[in-house]
Amino acid sequence: MLGKLYLDDAYLKQCFSEVIKRTQIHSNAGVILNQTVFYPTSGGQPHDTGTINGVDVIDVLVDQNQQIVHLLDKPLKSSRVACEINWQRRFDHMQQHTGQHILSQALLKTNGADTVSFHLGEQASTIDVNQSGLTPEAIFNVEQLANRVIFENRDIIGHVVNKSQIHRFPIRKLPTVEDHIRILEIKDFDYSPCGGTHCSKTGEIGILKISRHENYKGGTRLYFVCGFRALQDYQEKSEILTQ
Question: Is the dihedral of CA 135, 138, 139, 140 positive or negative?
Answer without folding.
Answer: positive
